[in-house]
Amino acid sequence: MLKKHIVAKVDMPMLVLLSDSAAIIARFHDTLMEKGVVNVIDSPSALWQRLSGVAPGLIVLDLGLSSLDAAFALSEIRRLSPASKVLVLQDDFSTSAELALLGAGVAGCCSARLTHDTIIRIIDMVLDGGVWISHAVMPLLLQQMQERGTLSAPVPVPVAAPVHGERLINLTPRERQIARLIGSGVSNKLIARELSITDRTVKAHLGAIFQKLGLSDRLQLALFVTGK
């Protein structure tokens, strides 16, 4: 039975949960197990040792850990395991704190009170190369991007408006469908499954969408589609 369990996990990514909270571990461990091989670590020093060996696909940091210096931890993770994605957990995040953490390179800031389905959605998005951003932070992030000149043009549609406008006319029906799914936070793999196409086809469509809309990545596309 044990052997069968190990074989089933061989091709799944390693996920690390850094926390010493029994409540956090109980809440997140089984959910993370659905997406990979989970290692629970209770101290930053143990995490550095882990990163000196195998690089995990995802690291979940509990910011409530008293021994954790978040800024130093993110710097060390970038140094020791630059390919690893990072999610941070906390009861609540202010918009300024979330913006700062996103700017430091985390792939998402998650409330420790999220539902199972939302956690799964976030993990899917992050492992697929996406970034999880709260609705409160999206407009602020868009404003920063526009001020820095990293977004080619302001969003031409109001919040929650249907995806229309002159810049979308050149998209094919399939491209518009994929753009809407990206705006809903759906990962490439889930898009491929829902539309019965391959991951490679989804990526090809995204490349065409980025070029037609003058955008550079899926984050900008999500902000464009949602009008935030």
Automatic annotation (TrEMBL):
Residues 14-127 form the Response regulatory domain. The keyword Manganese does not apply. The modification 4-aspartylphosphate is found at residue 62. Keywords: DNA-binding, Phosphoprotein. Gene3D superfamilies: 3.40.50.2300. Coiled coil: none annotated. The keyword Cytoplasm does not apply. Residues 164-228 form the HTH luxR-type domain. InterPro entries: CheY-like_superfamily (IPR011006), Sig_transdc_resp-reg_C-effctor (IPR016032), Sig_transdc_resp-reg_receiver (IPR001789), Tscrpt_reg_LuxR_C (IPR000792), WalR-like (IPR039420). PANTHER family: NITRATE_NITRITE RESPONSE REGULATOR PROTEIN NARL, TWO-COMPONENT RESPONSE REGULATOR. This is Response regulator transcription factor. It comes from Actimicrobium antarcticum.
